[in-house]
Amino acid sequence: MDYRLLGRTGLKVSPICLGGMMFGWWGENGLDASAKLIRRAVEAGVNFIDTADVYSNGESEELIGQVLAETGLRDEIVLATKVHGQMGEGPNRGGNSRAWIMRAVDDSLRRLRTDRIDLYQVHRPDPAVDLDETLGALTDLVRAGKVRYIGCSTFPAHRVVESHWVAERRQRERFASEQPPYSILARAVEADLLPVCRDYGMGVLAWSPLAGGWLSGRYREGAELPVSRRSALLPARYDMELEENRRKLAAAERLALLADKAGLSLVQLALQFVMQHPAVTSAIVGPRTMEHLDSHLESLDVRLTPDVLDAIDEIVPPGVTVNPADRGWQPPELADPSLRRRP
Predict the structure, then answer these.
(1) Can you give the CATH number for the domain in which 119 is found?
(2) Catalytic (active-site) positions
(3) What per-residue confidence (pLDDT) applies to 222?
(4) Contact 148, 118 (CB under 8 A)
(5) Rounded to whole angstroms, what are the CA distances from 184 to 27, 44, 303, 314?
(6) Positions in the chain short of pLDDT 50
(7) How many independent structural domains does the chain possess?
(8) What is the pTM of this model?
């Protein structure tokens, strides 16, 4: 396994990170199935697991914690989780405030059955909360030993830069990593976010490197398209009545043909594309089955040649996200007309 440094932390992590989104009822995986996936990943050399409190409403953390505790693997794993999403009823059970972060971290530690979180990430920006409020709380958690390093997820480049300014001026812990959506079909971060992360020495953990399943090989022209809980919950990303998704299908078909010509699976092509970007530390995969995981691990054995990378650029040009809905987070100014129009 070719382990990589996570930014400037000194931590070495595998280029594939096992994502925990499919552990629990979201992925219809209980303890036995989750344990088998974790053991298989670790046997292959994966030492990095990422989850979030909101995944299956805490069940993902609980399953990962139980498996790591019962197998004695906790000290061998770089364990990452996230805070931000709404957890239950109530106006203060989510977001990036000090009040919620201080409560949420203890809940995550309990579910994960551990005394520290190696990488604690802010799952999404919260425009209603001052960054200094968030960084101040996270800094206190690092100094208390509950958290080793902090990171952010799906932050725009300007917010990442602002976080470093705040950290320097207010003597806060700085974000050691960023977790953006990045795949062949969603390349917007190449224009600004990935260069910013390199400039600031941040690790990059790419989520959805298979574009939410579009690059799994299951989405092909002329074939019956898969139906899943995810497609029902996120119609903007899967509804084939939308022109943006028809463009994604056309691109996925061309990429599948390119992969076949290169003697690769589409999964290998997609994952290696992400892992070969010089700013990327690790690609987060979210297997639901052992077959999925094995196909992801096979991507570690190949490397894309310059001619294949050039051909990918012809199908989806650098910096282009085929469907804007795949960017993962939309600034409120784009959704709320009152924020861009004078009364």
Answers:
(1) 3.20.20.100
(2) 55
(3) 85
(4) yes
(5) 24, 25, 15, 11
(6) none
(7) 1
(8) 0.96
